[in-house]
Amino acid sequence: LPGPFTDVVTTNLKLRNPSDRKVCFKVKTTAPRRYCVRPNSGIIDPGSSVIVSVMLQPFDYDPNEKSKHKFMVQTTYAPPNISDMEAVWKEAKPDELMDSKLRCVFEMPNENDKLNDIDASKATPVLNTSKQDGPLPKSHSVSLNDTETRKLMEECKRLQAEIMKLTDENRHLRDEGLRLRKVTHSEKPGSPTALALRDNGSNSLPSLLVVIAAIFIGFFLGKFIL
After folding, report:
1. What is the pTM of this model?
2. CB of 31 within 8 A of CB of 73?
3. pLDDT digits (tens), the chain, 226 positions
4. Which of 18, 23, 16, 19 lies closest to 77, judged by CA?
5. Residues whose CB is less than 8 angstroms from the CB of residue 85 and which lie 6 or more positions away in sequence, other chains included
6. How far is CA 26 from the centre of its chain?
7. 3-state SS of 140-171?
8. Given its phi and psi angles, is residue 12 left (phi above 0), alpha (psi -120 to 50 degrees) or beta?
9. Of 11, 107, 110, which is closest to residue 56 (Cα–Cα)?
10. Whole-angstrom distance, CA of residue 9 vs CA of residue 57
């Protein structure tokens, strides 16, 4: 079992059944409070294997203290019909039981490994700091660009609305001009009504020029923004 033992240390135990019969197994330890074994019992089919996880709980390791922790894997051939595993072990005869004993060995990492871990832990905050310091100005500039873009888009929408409004007014003035021309042709050229209508037509020309200029300005402004 490799240290340090400040966290749970897990090692795997592989059990293989080389026989042609089913085998029941059970894992025992001399320190049941220190270990968690999963699974601690079960059945292995002929020619199959099972992985048993042995998890050592955290404890204060003393290198001067010799390990006295031991494990024993006990096995027996499974009866034809198994209904109760506890009954199988109670009814098994001593000559039908087989066992293998294992002694736990604790290994602490070398001093060089400790130094490498310390250097890595010292270097990690510096790397994280550099990563955190870098993106901040970039994210700030991105937020400013988003704000400016949002303002420009709103201004573009407002100008487009103005262009649509001016287009409607231009269409209305054009229809009004056509109506006035029809009325003018129906009247005599020298009559006061014709003169008044001609004056109205001439007065509408500056409005048409303003509308056309506004449309071109809005079109080019929209192209520039987008």
Report:
1. 0.47
2. no
3. 888 888 999 999 999 999 999 999 999 999 999 999 999 999 999 999 999 999 999 988 887 777 788 999 999 999 888 878 888 898 888 898 999 999 988 888 775 555 455 555 544 444 444 444 445 444 444 444 667 777 777 777 777 777 778 777 778 888 877 777 777 666 555 555 555 555 555 555 556 666 676 676 666 666 555 5
4. 23
5. 24, 41
6. 43
7. HHHHHHHHHHHHHHHHHHHHHHHHHHHHHHHH
8. beta
9. 11
10. 7
Backbone angles phi, psi at 6, to 5 degrees: -80, -20
Sign of CA dihedral 215, 217, 220, 226: negative
* DSSP collapsed to 3 states, 89-119: HHHCCHHHCEEEEEECCCECCCHHHHHHHHH
Which residues fall within 8 angstroms of residue 61, CB to CB, at 6 or more apart?
A: 3, 4, 5, 106, 108
Question: What is the Cα 127 distance to its own chain's centre?
Answer: 22
Token reading at 212: 């056309």
Selection from 125, 204, 210 nearest residue 166 by Cα: 210
**Number of Cα atoms under 13 Å in the Cβ half of residue 219:** 8
Q: How far apart are CA 148 and CA 141, in angstroms?
A: 11
Residue with tokens 């292995």: 44
16 three-state secondary structure: strand
Helix (H, G, I), strand (E, B), or coil: what is residue 14?
strand
Structure tokens at 184: 């003018």
